[in-house]
């Protein structure tokens, strides 16, 4: 590792060159490992907000933030990568000026960020964050505005995760579940949320036809979960038809197989038995394959 020369200007210039080199090497490593393109891409604040849905915001004032909690930007996603390393020499002059100020011990003003969950997005101060990370700091002073969203941001890691979040938000607008019911619906494939929305709405339409009255979306959602989803999941567990899928994945998959085999929307023991028979060869084959792999010592 290169030691500081004791000349602040030369060391500030080297800080920038080292940060640029690390950005280039990180981009090369992503390409060599054939990782998704968004691994090193900074999260855009507007896209995250659109995916999660905004409910409100409030100023929290001055806080000390961990630098590794800063993952995105309001408007500078092209100038820096996910770890705030410069993506070109375009920002060099201002970057080195700030690096020199820090090395001389001069006062640097706090940055300005938005907070969503535990994630922070820079509104003003991208160069200051980049310099602080390059110089090995762990924290930074920031004025924080907390944004309250409809969905939790906790499991967002990459830009691609926003598609699933966005479709989940749309699902919950169409099927406004609450509490435990809301938390229990999980689908890793974004498009499946659309399919589940349509399935619930179709179930609600049949329910209204049967009862001869209009039901609003919250009522349909609550009754679908209590009268359809929960009892059907109990039947699927008893028949060993869930496997390694989430409950919602199993409900959709078995429901599609049920309709393909029986052309019916009903659930009973005969339907479950028919679906069980139709999937038994595939499940048995999978178990044999897994058993064989274990026998080979892998």
TrEMBL record:
Superkingdom, natural source: Bacteria
Biased composition (Basic residues): 279-289
Region Disordered: start-end pairs: 278-298
InterPro entries xref list: ParB/Sulfiredoxin_sf
Name of this chain's protein: Uncharacterized protein
The species this protein was found in: Actinoalloteichus hoggarensis
């Amino acid at each position: 590792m290169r030691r500081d020369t004791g000349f602040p200007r030369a060391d500030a210039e080297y800080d920038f060159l080292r940060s640029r080199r690390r950005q280039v090497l990180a981009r090369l490593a992503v390409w060599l490992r054939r990782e998704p393109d968004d691994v090193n891409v900074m999260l855009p604040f507007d896209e995250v907000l659109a995916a999660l849905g905004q409910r409100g915001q409030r100023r929290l004032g001055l806080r000390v933030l961990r630098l590794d909690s800063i993952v995105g930007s309001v408007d500078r996603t092209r100038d820096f990568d996910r770890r705030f390393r410069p993506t070109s020499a375009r920002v060099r002059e201002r970057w080195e000026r700030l690096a020199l100020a820090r090395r001389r011990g001069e006062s640097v003003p706090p940055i300005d960020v938005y907070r969503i969950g535990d994630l922070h997005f820079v509104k003003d101060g991208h160069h200051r964050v980049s310099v602080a990370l390059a110089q090995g700091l762990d924290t930074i002073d920031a004025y924080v505005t907390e944004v309250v969203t409809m969905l939790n941001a906790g499991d967002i890691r990459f830009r691609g995760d926003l598609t699933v979040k966005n479709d989940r938000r749309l699902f919950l607008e169409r099927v406004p579940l609450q509490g435990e019911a809301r938390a229990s619906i999980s689908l890793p494939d974004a498009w499946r949320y659309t399919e589940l929305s349509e399935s619930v709405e179709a179930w609600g339409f049949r329910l209204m036809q049967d009862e001869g009255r209009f039901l609003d979306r919250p009522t349909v959602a609550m009754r679908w979960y209590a009268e359809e989803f929960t009892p059907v999941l109990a039947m699927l567990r008893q028949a060993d038809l869930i496997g390694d899928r989430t409950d919602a994945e199993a409900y959709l998959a078995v429901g599609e197989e049920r309709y393909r085999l029986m052309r019916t929307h009903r659930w009973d023991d005969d339907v479950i038995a028919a679906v069980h028979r139709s999937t038994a060869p595939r499940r048995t084959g999978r178990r044999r394959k897994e058993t064989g792999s274990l026998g080979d010592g892998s």
